[in-house]
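User: Just a sanity check before I run the rest of the batch. Below are the structure tokens for the first item. I only need the designed sequence back.
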């Protein structure tokens, strides 16, 4: 690589030799950039910022009763709203594109162009920025302003439509679940009417009744065993007593019976009153026996007394009182045993019936539980939907009165006075800088990579031998004239470029006035 001082000398020599080409390249680049800056259409950008207010004093007061419509991806939703066909058709009319009555295909192309020149961003969570770029400043302003208005209108209409749809949907669900609840009530009522045992607490009552019947059966069985034991004892006692006894006289028999009846009467009077049927019956029996006793005594007084022979005795025969009493008690014990057995059989029948009823209750519990569960589920959902419907109604009223999620123009669109993006001044400065740097860069590349020998030092460095003398280039008068012409041409080119820039600047300045 050549030293820097040697490279600089080579660059100066080559620049001097090719100054006309370098000047021409500079002029071409500078003028080309100037022409591009003049011909490039101006772009005017207008923007507006919309503030999204999610909460206000009404929302705070209605917290828990109303649900404000929220927005997550605000920029995405804004694009969906603004780039919709309805909004774009309105923008075509607002921007004057429909004045020339374009065809549907041309309208689609215009909409695509408008979409490409429209930029929607969300610098903050509650801000939406809409920017539109156009070559006409007035149209850029009007389109941006109209985009903001349409976005707010469509967003508010969408919010109101959404809340109304939510209310109508919940209202339809309320009607649906009201019918389901009514059907569940009818099914539950019909099932209870068809199944008498399907009542709340029926199983507990049945279990209690079964326990009572089982207790009664156990008591009856114990009582029946006691009656059988008593019957056996009385039967054994009765077998040891004679059924009849002979008495000396009928009067003594009457008196014994009268004494027994008196004892029975005394026992009854300890418990019952004189009006008791058994008391009345025994009194009548005692009166009958007294009458028989009087009649017997009268007959004896009228009868002739026997003479001679052994004294006659009355051979009247009477039943043994003890035997009669034991027999009566045995019969009573047998009656009680029969009654207890009948009671036991009836109680067992009632127990079997209650067991069957308990089985029916158990079988009906599943169906009743399912019907009750359906009824309770439908009731809970119905009550919840009623609350939600009222909340949706309040939300719908808030959106209708624009008291929920609201939009406000934070920074309105303004008429752009200067074009945006690269302007003519940028192209002019860029053309001058590029026109100066690009020829120098080409010259440097040429001098750096040119393999020809250009100095004595290069020969010494490459060949490794000393150079004794160098012969400079001899410039003829023709060469000097050519060099002067090239210098004059370069000066003319540079002055011409500068004059072109100055003339264009003066024209733009006069036009702006």
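Assistant: Here's the designed sequence for the first item:
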């Amino acid at each position: 690589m050549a030293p820097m001082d040697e490279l600089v000398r080579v660059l100066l020599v080559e620049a001097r030799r090719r100054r006309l080409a370098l000047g021409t390249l500079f002029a071409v680049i500078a003028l080309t950039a100037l022409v591009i800056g003049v011909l490039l259409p101006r772009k005017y950008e207008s923007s507006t910022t919309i503030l999204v207010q999610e909460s206000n004093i009404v929302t705070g007061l209605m917290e828990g009763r109303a649900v404000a419509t929220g927005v997550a991806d605000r920029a995405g939703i804004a694009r969906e709203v603004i780039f919709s066909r309805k909004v774009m058709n309105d923008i075509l009319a607002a921007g004057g594109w429909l004045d020339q009555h374009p065809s549907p295909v041309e309208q689609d192309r215009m909409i695509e162009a408008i979409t490409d020149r429209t930029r929607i961003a969300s610098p903050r969570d509650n801000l939406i920025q809409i920017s539109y770029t156009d070559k006409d400043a007035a149209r850029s302003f009007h389109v941006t302003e109209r985009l903001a208005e349409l976005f707010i209108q469509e967003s508010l209409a969408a919010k109101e439509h959404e809340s109304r749809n939510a209310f109508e949907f919940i209202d339809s669900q309320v009607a649906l679940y009201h019918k389901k609840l009514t059907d569940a009530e009818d099914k539950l009522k019909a099932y209870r009417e068809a199944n008498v045992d399907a009542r709340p607490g029926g199983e507990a009552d049945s279990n209690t009744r079964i326990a009572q019947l089982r207790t009664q059966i156990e008591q009856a069985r114990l009582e029946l065993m006691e009656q059988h034991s008593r019957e056996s004892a009385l039967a054994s006692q009765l077998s040891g007593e004679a059924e009849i006894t002979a008495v000396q006289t009928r009067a003594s028999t009457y008196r014994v019976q009268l004494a027994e009846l008196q004892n029975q009467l005394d026992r009854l009077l300890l418990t019952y009153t004189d009006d008791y049927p058994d008391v009345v019956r025994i009194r009548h029996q005692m009166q009958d026996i007294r009458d028989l006793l009087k009649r017997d005594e009268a007959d004896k007084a009228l009868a002739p007394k026997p003479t001679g022979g052994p004294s006659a005795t009355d051979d009247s025969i009477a039943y043994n009182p003890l035997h009669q009493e034991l027999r009566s008690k045995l019969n009573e014990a047998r009656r009680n045993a029969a009654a207890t057995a009948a009671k036991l059989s009836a109680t067992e029948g009632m127990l079997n019936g209650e067991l069957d009823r308990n089985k029916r209750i158990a079988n009906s519990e599943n169906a009743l539980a399912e019907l009750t569960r359906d009824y309770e589920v439908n009731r809970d959902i119905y009550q919840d939907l009623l609350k939600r419907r009222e909340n949706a109604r309040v939300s719908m009223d808030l959106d209708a009165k624009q008291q929920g999620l609201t939009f406000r123009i934070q920074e309105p669109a303004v008429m752009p006075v200067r074009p945006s993006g690269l302007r003519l001044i940028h192209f002019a400065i860029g053309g001058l800088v590029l026109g100066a740097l690009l020829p120098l860069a080409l010259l440097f590349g040429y001098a750096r990579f040119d393999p020809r020998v250009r100095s004595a030092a290069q020969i010494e460095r490459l060949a490794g031998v000393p150079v004794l003398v160098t012969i400079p280039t001899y410039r003829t008068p023709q060469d000097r004239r050519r060099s002067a012409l090239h210098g004059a041409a370069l000066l003319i080119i540079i002055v011409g470029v500068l004059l072109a820039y100055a003339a264009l600047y003066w024209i733009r300045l006069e036009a702006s006035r």
